[in-house]
């Protein structure tokens, strides 16, 4: 009965230079749907940071973007090492990224805080040694 | 400030999307940390950076930025130029260093916009 629209992406974890391709694609898809540009920007930035995280920490994963009547939900799931201390990981400036990642302009400890900042809801479900699932929602403005 | 004016002030070489030189930019960000760029909302902004990899172009695209200036004579790769073309992002290269390039633009009226979400 619901008019959900789901976009699925497999995030390749092999190559950092290609990280972000799914976010570029989702931005195109959302534009084609004629959604408000501010909503598109928030969704694609949050997804981009999440995608970078999955490539950097978890050798890739899966991303689903679900467009609903009242919101856009982003689900990012990986089978990476998991997050030991979520509270600590949420602090701006905290990072476990390698020097190589830092030299590429990321790993400044802003990824998760940025994801939270650009979305209305964010939930992290993580088990060390099993993986991490991040669910984010951006609601459409109520007219 | 028009992108063309920025190009003149910085003595920069245009690498792609010359047709967009008359677009206006309202704010600028000088940064090598892409996550910091992503932390701030920019409206029709320019990114000045010394970092050269495809994530710079993707970050600009995510933020709806319309111009990237590479400082210290750094040259983007053909792959990066193609990505920028696809999104109509003007790419320029200047010999100036980041601090100097930012200072020139700032003192000519292009202020930074730091509206944290």
Outline of the structure:
Chain A is α+β, with helices and mostly antiparallel strands. Chain A has helices at 21-32, 37-58, 86-89, 99-103, 111-118, and strands at 5-12, 60-67, 71-78, 121-127, 131-139. Chain B contains 5 helices and 7 strands; from the N terminus they run αββαββαβαβαβ.
Descriptive report:
The complex is a heterodimer of chains A (143) and B (117). Chain A has 143 residues and is α+β, with helices and mostly antiparallel strands. Chain A has one domain: Histidine kinase-like ATPase, C-terminal domain (Heat Shock Protein 90), CATH 3.30.565. Helix content of chain A is 36%, strand content 28%. A 5-stranded antiparallel sheet of chain A has the order 1-2-3-5-4, with helices on one face. In chain A, strand 4 (121-127) and strand 5 (131-139) form a beta hairpin. In chain A, helix 1 runs antiparallel to helix 2 and helix 2 packs antiparallel against helix 5. The longest helix of chain A has 22 residues, at 37-58. The radius of gyration of chain A is 15 Å and the shape is globular. The model of chain A has no long low-confidence stretch (mean pLDDT 94). Chain B is an alpha/beta fold and 117 residues long. Chain B has one domain (3-107): 3-Layer(aba) Sandwich (Udp-n-acetylmuramoylalanyl-d-glutamate--2,6- Diaminopimelate Ligase, Chain: A, domain 1). In chain B, the strands form 2 sheets. A 5-stranded mixed sheet of chain B has the order 1-6-5-4-2, with helices on both faces. In chain B, helix 4 links the parallel strand 5 (67-70) and strand 6. Chain B is globular, with a radius of gyration of 12 Å. Chain A binds chain B through residues 16-20, 23-24, 27, 37, 41, 44-45, 48-49, 52, 104-111, 113-114, 117-118, and chain B through 32-36, 38-39, 51, 53-56, 58-59, 61-64, 79, 116-117.
Number of structural units classed as domains of chain A: 1
Q: DSSP helix count of chain B? A: 5
Within CATH, the superfamily of chain A carries the name Histidine kinase-like ATPase, C-terminal domain
* Strand residues, percent of chain B: 15-25%
The N- to C-terminal Cα distance of chain A equals: 23 Å
CATH class of chain A: Alpha Beta
* Tally of individual domains of chain B: 1
Largest sheet of chain A: 5 strands, antiparallel
